[in-house]
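User:
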Amino acid sequence: MANDSKTWRCGKYELSFDRPRIMGVLNVTPDSFSDGGEHFDPDAAIEYGLAMLDAGADIIDVGGESTRPGFTPVNPDEEARRVLPVVRALAKEGAIVSIDTRHVAVAKAAVRCGASIVNDVTGFTDPKMVEFVKTSTCGVIVMHAGEVAAPARTHATVQLDTSAAAFVAEKAREAAAEAAREAEKPARRRRGKLLGEPKPEAKLPGGVVQPSLPFGEPEPTSEPSSEQETPAAEQAAAAETVAPAPEATEAASESNDRLAAMMRRSARREEAYVPTSQLRRFTLPDSAPIMRRVMGFLSDQARTLIHAGVSRDRICIDPGPGFGKSANEDIVIQRETAKMASLGYPLMCAVSRKRFVGAISGVTEAAARDAATFGVCLGAIQAGANIVRVHDAAGFAQFLNGYWAVAKPQPRRAFVAVGSNLGHRCDNIRAAREMIAEIPLTCVSNSSKIYESEPAYETRQDAFANAVIEIKTELAPLVLLDELMKIEAELGRDRSKKAKANGPRTIDLDLLWMDGETHGGKKLRLPHPLIGERDFVLVPLEDLMHDPARFFRYNGVEVKEPEDRVGHIVGELGRM
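Assistant: Predicted structure:
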């Protein structure tokens, strides 16, 4: 199940999986299959990314190249122009940002702009991409993007008519097919090797073998050189836009891009999959050969990264639904989620709005497949998936919160700071404590004493009364925050635009920290970014834990020395 002991280190962040994590899809492209370029404008993309964070997304996956069937490859310079302003803005708001790219230069620039994860749809088969992530601390997502089985192997024909005439006719068809295959062999040999034979394996420094993706033999290609991609996109980290470099001005075309060729073949294969006249014995193909190829590739690539120097706890795996796979194969892979989870790496379920989801739900329009997507994701979560990559992050957050509250009892510790400097300050704090205890799925487990402190930030106002309340809750952080805002409103807190941000207030409730939660966005930041400079928070916390400064430093929060803090404690006002 998702509430396991796996953790995923992504740069300065560490994700735990006591709850499944939501990755929101942000396509900064004009031709995405699901949103049709709605977020191609950088400002619109940034606004949408922040909205997904405020709705419950834990990670934002930013992509500047559509990889839908029939996609047009994008020049790395153009991809960088699309994604870097978005990555920079979201990272500035504390978001965990994933860059969805297969280009080394774009990955480098995005990580320098604040991305914490590299999501490579080609599964780190480029040695230069491996070399880059080896020298960084970002999380990595290894995705399988290859054709799982040749169309001829999908299902065996079953002879149901036992008449002699039918038997003879079937044998004649088999003989004709065999003759056609034999006639085709010399042509294949003339190309240097049989179609579908693996390409020579690349070697990384230290003798590590780099397996190739199971694309089969594509059309003759002249791939753009990664050496040429690097200079132009590296300049993009220092500026919002990227000046095209002469070495990278030749855009990759549909005819000379291996991934594009594979996706074209996949689309043709899906359209022609299993003729209606063909009778089959089983509803789905045998899972064993499919899972050997998918799990074998994911395991091999993860080991390649580990041997190159990438620590195991930075690696996540993704079977790549829709990439070179038929609808039947995608269903087989999803049903084997538990086997993939047993590999020991965080496992992603990235099925959102894919063609096979439309096939099983009967929904033709991609944007209308969210409900079916949620059903597939729930099945994956129950079988051990840790991260779900979805387009409708807000809808899935509601769906997950409802399911998790009933199915997974999971009280977690959190700290809430309480302050007041209007009216009867101590009475306001005690009233807030009683109301917090009435929040659904929440209880108050401990409280600090009430302290008096100097006003912080806006100093020309009365002194504050402050305390910290320790709670246990089963609510998601954003849901808990909404409940705290309701209490503020009921006790008379003015949060209108005319009120000063740090001015007088009857009550102020801040969610400081929550077990296993890291969050960014405009609405909520966890841990609270100002904990380390507030004396009126750190001193009350000493009543609830040993050495809070050390605790928060361990959790990545910068904590200032007492003399450098704001809102210094000047006395005690009593107990709760």
